[in-house]
Write a structure and sequence with these properties.
alpha+beta, 7% strand, MetI-like, amino-acid transport, membrane, transmembrane, four-stranded antiparallel sheet, Amino acid ABC transporter permease
């Protein structure tokens, strides 16, 4: 006969203060209770004070007529539009300066970071001086400086600087030629299609090179797509496109594209300030690549430009991306200083709205939600890209 073996049962867990799990659960419940009570007190006290002062709450004011003008906007806007549309204009203005600023600061900062590591003594010292000076001057002071340069130093419209035909720089801002016509939408669609095609082509070229070792001329193909597809869109639309040049009428220019002094000062300040930090991020990323990688690339005869583009920068990206994400977030949040130079961003528009409606809490919540949404979107995208380029262990 076989003996039955008894399986030892786990001892029953008793509720005891000496049990670390029980203590952790009790602490968490207490902390959540305290936080919940604090939130309840703040909300109830706020609603009580608003009721005493006969101040209505809610977001119904967004559907009322705004009644104030906005100096510049990405979409059509008039004072007869609602507060909701005015706030949307402010959000788009913030996104406009943030996106352009991020692209410009990345390009300029990357060049500065590479220049600081240059073997040329003069180039290296100039880049180092620029970085140290700009990083240690507060951004708000830089915004005031650039706004004063544009509005006080530059000449008036009648004597505007004309460095290139059709381009005028004055204390009223920058005037540029503008494309007009039905073909413009088709050309933009062609440009977007070219960008998508370049991304897919780059992915295919990389797989092909890994499999066969043959390098595909991606740069020349990309340039060709960026030219051919927009031109094809222009031809498909019937070639209805014209170039509108700025023309002096009265006391200011008419026609073309206008960049206001406020937008120019804000963009210049953000790019010049942030690019100094981006340069340090790029420099540290390049220096993190081991010297052996440089020597191996030089041993096979790669010129310095291709060495940086094909060997060093792809490896440095793994170090660059995380701190670069912080710089992008800082630039986006620093755009809230636009109110100091009069650019109508989300903060400026909401400030005007809450002064007219008295909905201060709702206005602040809208600003917080707008910046939170934009910042989280940037973080999600950069974290995705960081995981995509991370080394995969085998």
């Amino acid at each position: 006969m076989t003996k039955k073996t008894s399986v030892p049962q786990a001892p029953k867990r008793r509720l005891s203060w000496n049990d670390p799990g029980v203590r952790a659960l009790i602490y968490q419940v207490l902390i959540l209770s305290i936080v919940g009570l604090g939130v309840w007190y703040l909300v109830s006290n706020t609603l009580h004070n608003l009721a005493i002062r006969n101040i209505s709450t809610g977001f119904d004011f967004l559907h009322r007529e705004a009644g104030f003008a906005i100096g510049e906007s990405v979409i059509d806007y008039t004072p007869a539009d609602t507060y909701g549309r005015a706030i949307w204009v402010g959000i788009l203005n913030t996104l406009r300066v943030s996106v352009i600023g991020i692209i410009a600061a990345t390009l300029f900062g990357t060049l500065l970071g590479i220049a600081r590591l240059s073997k040329n003594w003069l180039v290296s010292r100039v880049a180092s001086t620029y970085i140290e000076v700009m990083r240690n001057i507060p951004l708000l002071l830089q915004l005031f400086f650039w706004y004063a340069i544009i509005t006080e130093v530059l000449p008036g419209p009648r004597t505007a600087l004309n460095p290139i035909p059709g381009v005028f720089l004055s204390n009223r801002g920058l005037k540029l030629p503008a494309l007009q016509g039905d073909a413009l939408d088709w050309m933009v669609a062609g440009l977007a299609l070219a960008i998508v095609a370049i991304i897919l082509l780059g992915h295919w070229a990389k797989k092909r090179q890994e499999a066969t070792g043959v390098i595909f001329p991606l740069v020349r193909a990309a340039i060709g797509l960026l030219i051919v597809l927009p031109v094809a869109g222009w031809l498909v639309s019937g070639a209805s496109l014209s170039l509108e040049m700025p023309v002096m009428k009265g006391f200011n220019f008419s026609g073309g594209i206008s960049l206001s002094p406020e937008f120019a000062a804000l963009l210049a300040g953000l790019v010049i300030y942030t690019s100094a930090f981006v340069a340090e991020v790029v420099r540290s990323g390049i220096q993190s690549v081991s010297r052996g990688q440089w020597e191996a690339a030089e041993a096979i005869g790669l010129p310095r430009g291709r060495l940086l583009r094909l060997v060093i920068l792809p490896q440095a990206l793994r170090v660059i991306i995380p701190p670069m994400t912080s710089q992008y977030l800082n630039l986006t949040k620093n755009s809230s200083l636009a109110v100091a130079v009069g650019y109508p961003d989300i903060v400026s528009v909401v400030n005007t709205t809450l002064n007219q409606t008295g909905q201060a809490i709702e206005g602040i919540l809208i600003i917080m939600a707008a910046y939170l949404t934009v910042s989280l979107s940037i973080s999600i995208f950069m974290n995705w890209y960081n995981k995509r380029i991370a080394l995969v262990e085998r």
